[in-house]
């Protein structure tokens, strides 16, 4: 089973649900692309606009911020409902992951191959590593891609993920490569 971003989160959710139910239809393997296991703290505010809807002035904020078409593959608006649902689902999946860890059930989780960026502004790679990958006990692989770390370019790049990457390189994970 494959999934990208919230689709990756849904693939993990489906796998956890089938494992909890003892269903034999659980995937044999997962391939995830930037799964939304952890989101920025701002995701919690995706539905905050609803509070303001009691005032007529804010009624139009219940839809998209802009109804214009996309420009160069970026939305001109933020889908608040989808943001809120993804945030809520992330919390549910994280509770399921914690329960699976308490039950020592990660040995049954299928091998997982994940591709994700260290510099993603929405999906948090440290959360993916600490909440998910650090618990995997079967042969899984995490592929991190990053910014250009060429010495000549490094003076122009502010690297907030450098300490995380160094800590990750020092650690010796047992359940994944």
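^ Assign residues to that structure.
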């Amino acid at each position: 089973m494959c999934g990208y971003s919230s689709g990756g989160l849904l693939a993990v959710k489906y796998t956890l649900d089938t494992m909890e139910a003892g269903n034999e239809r659980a995937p044999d393997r997962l391939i995830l692309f930037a799964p939304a296991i952890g989101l920025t703290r701002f995701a919690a505010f995706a539905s905050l606009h609803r509070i303001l809807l009691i005032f007529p002035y804010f009624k139009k904020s219940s839809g998209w911020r802009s109804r214009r078409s996309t420009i160069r593959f970026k939305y001109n608006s933020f889908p608040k409902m989808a943001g809120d649902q993804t945030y809520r689902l992330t919390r549910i999946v994280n509770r399921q992951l914690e329960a699976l860890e308490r039950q020592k059930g990660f040995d049954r989780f299928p091998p997982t191959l994940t591709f994700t960026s260290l510099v993603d502004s929405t999906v948090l790679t440290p959360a993916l590593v600490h909440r998910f990958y650090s618990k995997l006990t079967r042969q899984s692989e995490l592929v991190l891609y990053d910014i250009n770390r060429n010495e000549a370019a490094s003076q122009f790049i502010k690297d907030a993920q450098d300490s995380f990457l160094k800590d990750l390189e020092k650690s010796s994970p047992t359940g994944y490569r």
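The chain has a mean pLDDT of 78.
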